[in-house]
């Protein structure tokens, strides 16, 4: 298995190379990630209605020499999902005599490169088209550490299109918005480890109403991925113990740039009118 790649990323990257039967297994694994992969070969094969040898062939294509190694990787990911910053911190980063800033920037650059390499063009392009569609209303939800990222994306989207709403991180208020959502809407959820059960419940209820869910998460995949139409997973394991938001911010900036570039004809007139209004109101600054 490639270093720093989760099993979910391997499944997604290899999907087009799998046989139809193997793709069935991959979809079940992703839809019930990572729990389905922790079942025995016989249990997983029965769940998907395939043979045991077919399961083993898929595991081999992912780069594992045995089903035991495959499950060991999943258990390691499950442990990583639950780790606190106390466990994650790498002591080597703080070693005396090192250039902390240079080392930190290098690691952030590596995380961004890993993120870019593992987000599929289909997932990224699909999210761009959903968020650029003027017929759809956009709702955004972030958690304790990702709410500022949701706000950042919301502010940019409000400039280039209408009907953009950021939800407060207060579950008691969500029903007032959920009741108005339908198949023309998009719910953008930010959820990183240790995942937010309330956000998962909100996304599932929105999906039941045919809302299209776009998920920003980490490489271990929030449970929201089970009901997400498109998932953008960033590598976020920062060496200082805290997960890094920089790779997620890179994905947001790339998405905003893609919306502007690909739909400039639709956006131009709105921006021109908006600038005239800002000048008339004496508004300055970003």
State the gist of this model.
By secondary structure, the chain is an alpha/beta fold. It is built from 13 helices and five strands.
Report on this structure:
The protein has 286 residues and is of the alpha/beta class. The protein is 54% helix and 9% strand. It contains 13 helices and five strands. The longest helix is centred in the middle third of the chain and has 19 residues. It is globular. Keywords: DNA-binding, Glycolysis, Transcription, Transcription regulation. Pfam families: HTH_6, SIS. InterPro entries: Homeodomain-like_sf (IPR009057), HTH_RpiR (IPR000281), RpiR-like (IPR047640), RpiR-like_SIS (IPR035472), SIS_dom (IPR001347), SIS_dom_sf (IPR046348), WH-like_DNA-bd_sf (IPR036388). This is MurR/RpiR family transcriptional regulator.
Rg from alpha-carbon coordinates: 21 Å
C-alpha termini separation? 44 Å
Largest sheet: 5 strands, parallel
Spatially, the strands of the biggest sheet line up as 2-1-3-4-5
How many beta-strand elements?
5
Separate helix tally: 13
Class by alpha and beta content: alpha/beta
In terms of DSSP E residues, the strand content is 5-15%
Order of helices and strands: HHHHHHHHEHEHEHEEHH
Task: Please mark out the parts with pLDDT under 50 across 5 or more consecutive residues, or reply none.
Answer: none
* Shape label: globular
- Estimate the helix proportion, in percent: 40-55%
């Amino acid at each position: 298995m490639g270093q720093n790649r989760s099993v979910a990323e391997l499944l997604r990257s290899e999907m087009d190379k799998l046989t139809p039967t193997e793709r069935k297994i991959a979809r079940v694994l992703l839809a019930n990630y990572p729990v389905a992969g922790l079942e025995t070969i016989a249990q997983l094969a029965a769940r998907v209605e395939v043979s045991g040898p077919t399961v083993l062939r898929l595991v081999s294509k992912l780069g594992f020499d045995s089903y035991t190694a495959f499950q060991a990787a999943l258990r390691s990911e499950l442990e990583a999902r639950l780790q606190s910053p106390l466990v994650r911190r790498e002591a080597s980063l703080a070693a005396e005599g090192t250039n902390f800033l240079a080392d930190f920037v290098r690691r952030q650059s590596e995380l961004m490169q890993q993120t870019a390499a593992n987000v599929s063009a289909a997932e990224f392009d699909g999210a761009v088209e959903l968020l650029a569609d003027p017929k759809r209303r956009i709702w955004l939800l972030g958690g304790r550490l990702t709410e500022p990222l949701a706000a950042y994306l919301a502010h940019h989207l409000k400039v280039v299109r209408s009907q953009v709403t950021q939800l407060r991180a207060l579950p008691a208020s969500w029903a007032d918005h959920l009741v108005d959502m339908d198949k023309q809407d998009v719910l953008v959820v930010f959820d990183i480890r240790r995942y937010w059960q309330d956000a998962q419940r909100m996304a599932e209820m929105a999906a039941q109403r045919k809302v299209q869910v776009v998920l920003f998460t980490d490489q271990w995949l929030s449970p929201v991925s089970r009901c997400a139409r498109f998932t953008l997973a960033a590598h976020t394991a920062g060496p200082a113990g805290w997960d890094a938001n920089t790779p997620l911010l890179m994905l947001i900036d790339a998405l905003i740039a893609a919306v502007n570039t690909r739909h400039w004809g639709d956006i131009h007139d709105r921006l021109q009118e908006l600038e005239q209004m800002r000048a008339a109101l004496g508004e300055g600054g970003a």
